[in-house]
Amino acid sequence: MPKRALITGITGQDGSYLAELLLDMDYEVLGVVRRSSTTNLERIAHLVDRITLVPGDLQDETSLLYALRDFKPTEVYNLAAQSFVHSSWALPVLTGETTALGVTRLLDAIRIVDPEIRFYQASSSEMFGKVLETPQRETTPFYPRSPYGVSKVYGHWITVNYRESYDLFATSGILFNHESPRRGIEFVTRKVTDGVARIKLGLTHELRLGNLESTRDWGYARDYVQAMWLMLQHDGPEDFVVATGETRSIRELCEIAFGAVGLDWHDHVKVDERFYRPAEVDALVGDASKAERILGWRRKVDFKEMVEEMVESDLAAVAATLR
Ligand code: NDP
Ligand code: GDR
Fold first, then answer.
1. What pLDDT score does 4 carry?
2. pTM score, two decimals?
């Protein structure tokens, strides 16, 4: 019998890569898609003939119950969230409804429809926030620094709680930042690579950014969706950190991205306080040794390769708009 996976957040960066990975392994894939007035299927346009899409929303439990009842998945990947940290101050309640309570709605729907389903929760390094230990691992205490981070802590603990209360196969992957050419344009890596392309092609001269000092542990999204799948194939549900173990500042990101097209970032980047956050996560670096040891997970693409791929992709995309 083919394996059947339901993905929330399939229209997002990770959802699109995960759908590709699962289709390659002959899974049947169902994507839950929320209603919007314009189409937002760009990231999965090449897959729509091979997957089933159903309307649904993490704010509407009935839609989740129907999707589970009708499709009968063996695995559920909860990737949906209001995922942009900066917006979570402007939208704290919506962020809590989706990113926090949405997890409970989905876990409850699983408990009601089929408690044998294996569940993956997209937890985040933002839960470590103002870090209490370096590098951060599965046992590091949380200290979230944004409504988004607080919501993810709730999502993490409700996953652990449903595992322990109802014996669900509920796994939490604590993933550090991961990027790709499909990253949303508002996140700093993609904002920089898109900015580099626009500057290189003469459309603008400057790129306005916020805090250049913070550091992140940036990996490659395709490598990270592999870890999600591995977690649900493991003997039992556990928490796993997925990270590269390397950390870089926004300055270093700029240096590599501008350098990839022969530009000096100092000539183009301007600091703009509009992009600062009310509370910042200054430095993150993860220890993925548990995932490496138990799941056999390894990353394949390094930071420089990834940034160069993103710059190349944005150069092609911006050039196409000029034709
Ligand atoms: P994206 O922002 O690219 O995608 C988010 C997805 O969630 C989109 O498909 C969006 O749909 C969907 N969504 C938002 N609100 C709802 C809702 N109320 N009901 C149903 N769907 C909804 O995120 P990523 O792919 O980058 O991340 C995937 C998950 O992993 C997220 O939960 C994120 O918080 C988490 N995460 C991400 C990391 C990263 O570095 N990328 C690191 C750690 C965790 P629409 O297209 O309609 O907006
Ligand atoms: P993050 O990603 O908040 O780590 O969350 P983001 O790329 O938005 O910010 C990273 C760091 O860059 C600094 N920064 C800027 N950020 C943005 N977006 N725009 C700017 O102009 C800018 N200038 C500086 C930020 O202050 C921050 O320190 C991502 C999301 O994918 C979450 O969903 C996920 O959980 C975490 O990664 C792990």
1. 98
2. 0.98
